């Protein structure tokens, strides 16, 4: 059974600081996604990572994938309040269903 | 650009009632997935369809059923509703095994 774990589950950080969210998964997968979710809202796709060593950046967010270690990271640079949300990684496995991580609730404090 | 449409957006039902949720994927997307997200939880895969055939099944209760129609829209039918069924229900569409595009969700409240 595929397991996807994220840490930390909760993250409170000051504006301007850097931090990293980690996503570990238990079985070889073809694709890994990062999503953002605001309270009560849908899932917004941030990144799709397809291969070992893949790195993608958008604004203050950067995601990377190490398929050998089965680890993905989402790095936040110089955080701003607008980044406050819950972030999920999700792994594509088997018949294209997504298995989501536990989520990281990020709060940026002014 | 057209997005995934879900209806209704909000639904309040009483215990033991039935509910039907609808999902209209982006045009030409032939695969539909349903996910359930409980309060404070991560989304859990329920069921998926490709070309009107069930392609995978997850943790979907026997009280729930779903189908995909010839125009690729999908309906999730829920019977004998329980308090624990209260959740956000997302559908996502894709072209084959491509990237999944999520709808806005239906918030179901069972009282």
Description:
The complex is a heterodimer of chains A (110) and B (111). Chain A is built from no helices and eleven strands. Chain A has strands at 4-7, 10-14, 19-25, 31-37, 43-49, 55-58, 61-66, 71-76, 85-93, 97-100, 104-109. In chain A, strands 2, 4, 5, 9, 10 and 11 form a six-stranded mixed beta sheet that branches. In chain A, strands 1-3-8-7-6 form a five-stranded antiparallel beta sheet, with no helix packed on it. In chain A, strand 6 and strand 7 form a beta hairpin. The radius of gyration of chain A is 13 Å and the shape is globular. Helix content of chain B is 0%, strand content 51%. Chain B is built from no helices and eleven strands. In chain B, a hairpin with a 6-residue loop joins strand 4 (31-37) and strand 5 (44-50). Chain B is globular and about 35 Å long. The termini of chain B are far apart.
Please tell me the overall pLDDT of chain A: 93
Biggest interface, residues from each chain: A-B, 18 and 24 residues
Largest sheet of chain B: 7 strands, mixed
From the structure provided, what is the oligomeric state, counting identical versus distinct chains?
heterodimer
Low-confidence stretches of chain B: none
Which spans of chain A have pLDDT < 50 for at least 5 consecutive residues? Answer: none
- The secondary structure category of chain A is mainly beta
Rg from alpha-carbon coordinates of chain A: 13 Å
The backbone outline of chain B, from C-alpha atoms, is globular
Rg of Cα set of chain B: 13 Å
Look at the structure and give the mean pLDDT of chain B.
Answer: 95
How does the overall form of chain A come out from the CA principal axes? globular
Q: Structural class of the helices, strands and pairings of chain B?
A: mainly beta
Order of helices and strands of chain B: EEEEEEEEEEE
Helical content band of chain A: under 10%
How many strand units of chain A? 11
The sequence of SSEs of chain A as H and E is EEEEEEEEEEE
